[in-house]
Design a protein that fits this description.
With about 210 residues, the protein is of the alpha+beta class. The chain has a single domain, classed as Gcn5-related N-acetyltransferase (GNAT) (Aminopeptidase), CATH 3.40.630.30. The chain has eight helices and seven strands, in the order βαααββααβαβαβαβ. A hairpin with a 2-residue loop joins β2 and β3. The protein is globular and about 45 Å long. Bound molecules: coenzyme A (COA). Coenzyme A (COA) binds next to β4, α6 and α7.
Length: about 210
């Protein structure tokens, strides 16, 4: 029986593995330093934005995770919060060895363009699903539902009127549509193109609670 529990710092490697499996950073990002920064950006960057950080495990093995911005506690303390956290992430990108400065600049511009385009579609939200992934071998068994149902209940309990999520053509946006999330906007993101290695078409969905 799969059970839910809070994320712990010692889950980092396993969660990074699940994220890498879902978005294949090691496969499509040629340079290992770039893949490492991308994985860190996804897992630690999302955690730092999240007050809800849950994993689902079976027999002691973590099979999935959902991080969300809404919660009644503090954001996860991994040293990447706020301005200092953003600077630390920036330092990791700039300091990555064996990766040309022109490429780094291209990534920084892409991240900035993404953030501007996203804001033009939907303002930053305090209920965003910041990260969701289930082990490929365990999909279709209801684990994603367990994680999402819990987050929806939490948001309802907090009196929130909607949940937001950003996703893209490479990700399983059908899962959200199945839940009744409505696509409220689409934008072209050079960051999605770099990170996910897909078309760059990025979607914002909203679930009215
Ligand atoms: C999205 C994801 C977490 C779903 O996890 P999962 O454990 O396979 O999902 P579940 O088995 O709990 O499915 C829950 C429901 O969604 C439905 N569903 C899942 N994917 C679907 C799709 N593409 N289209 C329609 N329905 C879908 C299931 O049929 C199930 O329906 P039911 O509960 O009414 O019977 C998983 O596919 C994943 O990790 N994908 C890669 C990463 C990703 O895309 N993350 C989300 C986008 S940011």
């Amino acid at each position: 029986m799969a059970t839910l529990r809070d994320y712990r710092p010692d889950d980092l490697d396993r969660c990074t593995e699940l994220v890498n499996q879902a978005w294949d950073f090691d496969g499509h990002l040629e340079h290992p330093a770039v893949a490492t920064v991308a994985k860190d950006f996804y897992v630690n960057g999302s955690l730092a934005e999240s007050r809800h950080y849950r994993v689902v495990e079976d027999d002691g093995v973590v099979l999935g995770l959902l991080f969300g911005a809404a919660g009644d506690g503090a954001r996860f303390d991994n040293g990447y919060q706020g301005l200092l956290g953003a600077l630390r992430m920036l330092g990791r990108l700039i300091g990555a060895r064996g990766w040309g400065s022109g490429e780094k600049l291209r990534w920084l511009r892409a991240i900035r363009a993404h953030s501007v385009a996203r804001r033009s579609v939907l303002a930053p939200s305090d209920t965003e699903v910041t990260l969701l992934a289930v082990d490929a071998a365990a999909r279709g068994r209801g684990l994603g539902r367990q994680l999402m149902d819990e987050y929806i209940d939490l948001c309802r309990g907090l009196g929130k009127d909607r949940i937001t999520v950003e996703t893209d053509t490479h990700s399983n946006f059908g899962f959200y549509e199945h839940y009744g999330f409505e696509r409220v906007g689409t934008f072209d993101s050079p960051m999605t193109r770099l990170f996910a290695g897909d078309t760059g078409e990025t979607f914002v969905y909203v679930l009215d609670l």
